[in-house]
Amino acid sequence: MDETKVLVLAELYWPQGGGAELATHLILKKLQKTGKFQITVLTGVKNVEKVDGIKYIYTPHLKPRPKPLLWLFVDYMCRTKYFRKLLKEHDVVYIPRIAYPAIPHVKKSGKVVVHLHNYQPVTYHSVYSSIDENLNNPIKFEELEHQSIMRSIAVGFLRGINNLVKYWLLQADKIVCVSRKQKEILVKHIPELAKKVEVISNPPPEVPSIEKIVQNPPVFLYASGDSYVKGFTMVLRAIFALEKRRTRAKFILIGKYSDKTLAILNKLHSMIKYVEVKYKGRMEHTELLKLHREAWGLLFPSILEEPLPYTVIESMVARTLPIASKVGGVPEIVEGTKAEEYMFMSRSLEGLIDKIEAILSIPREELEDISWKLRNRALKKFNPEIIEKKLVKLFS
Q: Which of 117, 127, 123, 126 is nearest to 310 (CA)?
């Protein structure tokens, strides 16, 4: 049987970006391994982690930039002779990010698969919250998340163009959602897409078996930076509450932090005695995995409907108990595992603190046993072979 030729349009590609880019990388790796596909990746970044056998082409048209500009550049790219030639050489175009203006151009001669890792079809800023309706308003979101008046004004003028996304997606052949919850929210807002949507979980991250070095005081990781919607303020409040209770624990903060936040963290060190806080900032993915060796738990207090957060899946595979808010695809990830007991209602500070203290009370031997079961259950739940079969069927 002839190979199916797949053209991928990805503004970002691993190791740039985050969970969505890692998922794309792992998906293409699996498709390439089957020998049934010939894959070309058209991307806007030059330094990518390449998969043997896959062709990577850099184009400035896909260079990451503000959405309205990106969409103009994508539309222009699709009108070039070079891109039209690429289209003729491929059977399927795969859009794992937001290069949606390409869809009507591709549909003239081929098939389109769109992979949703966010809620771009529903909101201009691509995130969605059932807990706080304010966050679904892009202007209010900019105020809360970025505290930027200029961004709020710009979004106010531009958010109407997001209506084009529905028009583009209605022309796609297949739309992949990564969780049942994501599909539910998408179809609730755009019911016309229901027949096109298929739910396929992201492949589990390739995390080797980690030998835990459980330390005292117990270590908790938080890897989402100082994002308001990811629950950073909740983490700070939990640290102060545990300090008041004279709880011995260590928190390692990973991710992007503003100068203002760093000043707060520096002041924090002089105010606490029992709780230890370390700031690590942004780091390579391999370095983050090393931190899981000494971690008892991972904090994920998001207030967004996270489609299928890789941070939580990776935590389980790395044998670290996730303490996660009950949002989006999180219940689907932890369902049937010990981690299900450590979910809490989003925005519940007491819920977060209770779960941290519950983990602190687990004897080391029991924690070892729980962590192994957590890893095995996660790898079974997100079975790479089953996911691979679904992907092969989709692209074939």
A: 117
